[in-house]
Amino acid sequence: MPNNSKFELEAKYFQDMPVYWLVRQLADRWSLPVIAELCRGTQRFLELKRALEPVSKRMLTLTLRRLMAAGFVERHMQDTNPPQVSYALSPLGHSLGEALKSLNAWTKLHHATFAAALKRDQRASDQDL
């Protein structure tokens, strides 16, 4: 039986910190790399797959579907024979890409600080054993 307090806490996070929803959407292995590749421009499936080796076709498909469902990626089908499909960031995806660039710059600036803190914490945990 599900723990209602967990769901209530999660609902509170969604309400008080909308970024919680975003982090949950992007916290898998391939979402951020796909968005980063599409920041470079529209790409066909196999172009994305090659750029993101070793992603499998299935995982790339699932990731693209999840990003499309969230409104970050658009799928374009060209009326050719055979049909050609390409993927691009939506306007929402472009704005997310800009926000991620800022977050990446912040991370580069502060990485040494929080990496050192994590290392100290790990050493303290190791001593407790």
TrEMBL record:
A GO molecular function held by the record: DNA binding
InterPro entries reported for this sequence: HTH_HxlR, WH-like_DNA-bd_sf, WH_DNA-bd_sf
Protein name per Swiss-Prot or TrEMBL: DNA-binding HxlR family transcriptional regulator
SUPFAM superfamilies on file: Winged helix' DNA-binding domain
Classification via Pfam families: HxlR
Organism: Rhizomicrobium palustre
Signal sequence bounds: none
Residue ranges of domain HTH hxlR-type in the record: 17-115
Source species, domain of life: Bacteria
Key words, A-Z: DNA-binding, Transcription, Transcription regulation
Transmembrane segments: none
Cross-referenced PROSITE patterns: HTH_HXLR (PS51118)
